[in-house]
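Hi D.,

Good news: the full-assembly prediction came through. Inputs first.
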Amino acid sequence: MQFLHQPLTWAFLLLLAPPLIHMINLMRHQRVRWAAMDFLLQSHRKHRNWIRLKQLLLLLMRMAIIGAAVAMLAQLVSQHQWFHFLGGTTVHHLVLVDDSLSMTDRSGDTTAFEQALRTVKQIAARAGAIQEQRQEMTLLRFSRAEHAPPPSSADASAPDGDMAEGTPLAAVELPATVLGRDFDSRLEDQLRMWEASELASEPTAALQMAQEIVTQQTDRQTRVYVLSDFRRHPWSTPAQLQPLLDPLIKAGATVHLVRCTAAQHANLAVTSLQTVEGPTAAGVPFFVDVQVKNFGAEVAQQIPLKIQTITHAAPADMDPTRPASPETTDLPTVLLERLEPGETLTRRVQVLFSQPGEQIIRAELPEDAIAADNSRMCVVSLLSTIPVLAIDGSSDGQHAYYLQSVFQPSQRAQTGVRVTVQSTDFLRQLNAADLAEYHTVYLLDVDRVDPAARSVLLQYVQQGGGLAVFLGPDAHLPSYQEWYGEGEGLFPLLLDREEELPAADSPTPDLIVTDHPLFRGLLGERNPFATGIRVERYMRPVSGWKPPARSTTQVLARLRNGDPLMLERRVGAGRVVACLTTLAPLWNNWAREPSFVVVMLQLHAYLDAPRGDIPARLVGTPIELSLDSTRYLPEVQFWLPRRLEGPPRSMTRQGVPVPAGVDPAGPLANTPSAPDRQPTPDRTTGSPTEKYFTVSLGGPRDKAYLPTETQGIYEARPVRTDGQMEFHRYALNVDTRESDLALLDKRELAEQLQPIEVHVHDPEELDTSADAIPGFPWSQALLSGLVLLLIGEQLLGYSASYHKAARGYDGSPSARVGGVPPRAASTRRAASSPFVGSGRGER
Amino acid sequence: MPDSKRFFHPETIRRITRLELRARHIVEGFLSGLHRSPYFGQSIEFLQHREYAPGDDLRHVDWKVWARQDRMYVKQYEEDTNLRCHLLVDVSASMQYGNGPLNKYDYECTLATSLAYLLLRHQDAVGCLAFDEQVRSQAPARSKRTHLETVVRSLSVAEPRDKTRLDRVLKNAAEMLPRRGMIVLISDFLVDLQTVFQGLRMLKHRGHEVLIFHVLDDDELDFPFSGPTRFEGLETVDHLNCNPRALRDGYLEALQQFLTELRRHCAQQNFDYSLVRTRQPLDVSLVSYLSSRMGTRRIRH
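Then the structure:
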């Protein structure tokens, strides 16, 4: 119970007035010396109790009148349900505001989100003008509803309708706030802090929360307002929305959909920016693919696409206490000639970074309706050189020679790949730490692979390593057959014997490739690179061998006799490619063909892709690091992207130990590969998982609300136990689903949601006064009660003889007492003297 | 020295002079008055003529008949008896109440004086007894016009004070007034009615005609008080703090019951009863009462 006008509640002190006046009157009575005391005492004895009761009732009634009047003027309101049955009705305005990225759609000097804020004020102003009913308002943003904390066990004890802190409903703002005198200022303060997010928030979570609120608050008449732009996505999926809207209607709420934008505007967006597979090393140019899509309804022409490289200094040169200050370089602008509505164009751009480390590439379009999707960034992890291990089984190292000639053709031509050649003895003494630094491992005509080496290689591949196996005359078949292990091993097929490929009479090439990234350069009937390859010998699989069902093994290339020559198998995060002939030109001439270099570079890129693959991140997703507690301090500092004209922002997060039995994603699992990455702990040897801890920016464990909601580069700075700081960067981009500004018009929107009855408005049409709410207004009930109390007081006062009767009125008891005319009647006839009348009685 | 003009109001007297106070019953009297008597005598009402006889008073010769017939006749009148009227006036403390120009005491004294003047003018004998618990002062019945001052003096010396003891006073009166006559009792009768009835029965038993003037103040009849009031008894030590309007109905009901009982008893005993308000003009009260009284006589005769 509360009052809209709190200061007026002081007037309740007036309740003391009737008893005080009564007591004063008792003291200031007039004194009359009276003759007929017997009659008076007789009357007093007869009516004493009844008179006292009437006086008490009258006193209470007068106090009740004052109380009711003060309560009415102070606008008494109450949330108790039984007031509803007394006639008091509370109108709850539940306003759901779409603050997704599409609401930043700018038209002229305003955006859809600003229109939504104006509509919120408009709703509050109209509701506040209604005095007859108590008005409440609750605000809820789509983004807050979507990223509300999950329900905890404490919620079960929360009372119904209580939007308590810590519950999902804590995401609401101004929860059930009464529209009183100070509401406008509170609303203004609240809305001033609001800005449209860069998230791709959908209405689902907000509508679910609204449903929860409405079903809990059965004592209120709820009006649900959804202020959104109502894009085709997601509002054209009625199957998803109808189950959310229907309970609101059934719970008695009215649903008003307010369209905050009227027209679709032109919008281009950078939908993708990613590196092309290939070695990415400092000083080696590489390519990035940029995709631009036209989400508008009109053709876009002559679109300049700006590409920038943002180069950070080496970790040793960076100030650990300050945000990074990278150097930005503009690459030549790419001009997109013409982009049809809905069309996506891809442009490949060559990029070169001279500095190793995690560097940034940025693509930017000119400003249009939605600004955030005009730019996109990606992080590329560049190494000084890419270490590759080649274990050559030949005595003269001829296999490794050809491999080195691919990656290191000359001093001037660099691919960034550095090949380390080892003999098969290295393989026999292999352990996990030996392979950790290499991006790919090449087994070149290795005679046998021991079980210990197989285990190390299996773990290496599972953690994202790339393994290429080339067979040859030295290969010991039983060893490879064991490695196949009935399909469970790392080697992808079961070998049978060494086989010679008969010479062909037809022009059919020996090598028939599939549509695989490895052979992009060899595809086509007339491709001279493919036709020149001759294979003389190879290892033949057992007859009738096929890749097991549901296996990741696939054949990449076959010989013209149909036998597989190159196969791939994916194990864990890594890939294994097996080639059943030699790398050196012993059983084939491929190493002497131009296509060899192309395929080998593609093979390296393909095998290295999982390790160098930096997943695309969207704003709002948490950044989580799993670190080895023996090597990293538990406190990690994060630097966040600057907001417009805002200062640099940093947050520090403490690591949370990973409990035993939980498999961590691995050290720096979400981070790109670092040049100084240490060997992964050997879990097969039973390393305890308690030694890992996770540090998260955002996510359910983070108490701050969605720290990753801004597009840009986030930098994590874990500190090693030796005092060295690492710098890991993450590019968070907006979800381009929000770039599609296609609108549903009012008719389409209503049709989509049929048979659910919703009211679709434009902001200027929003007038909910037609939603007459049944029931007796509480303030009116107070007024009616006051009138009844006043009438009752008058009647009781008359009954208790507190009213002055007209003297000598006809029909009064006194007129009959003694049969003598009342005095007034007599005195009307009397002259000035009491002795003499007018003579009418004379005879 | 009491002021004989205190209770004498000339204008009132002028208005009631033309009226006749007649007893309902013919009573014996010493003096020829205006009251009818079974005996012939000197009276105002003509009865018959008879021839003059020596010794007859020449004042009764009808000279108009002598002038027409040259024979002397004397007029014979229905002889009026002398009225012996005693005014019993209550001068107890309760009569002190009054909120208007006159309190009950002043009003009843004026009423008594007016009646005395009227009676004396018609040569009736008027006596007066002022009483409260007992007879405080007394004026014997005389018919001389100068006796009015004696009556007034007897009223004036008796300032209201103690309680009323009507039974004792009426008993004393009955003993003091053995000869039949008219008793005019003027009081507010705020006493135990049974004692009043007892005394009145004694007067009735003595053959007196009893006229009762019940004098009450308008406040006592209307009870117009409002607001917190403390009532203190004039003849008792009782007091009451109350809201008068809340008790008004009960009070008027009790008063009505009291008056009804008094009126019923008077009717049974054939007493003339008149309730008089103190703010009612005195002439109106007298005219009203005397008119009704004369009307009653004419119906009977």
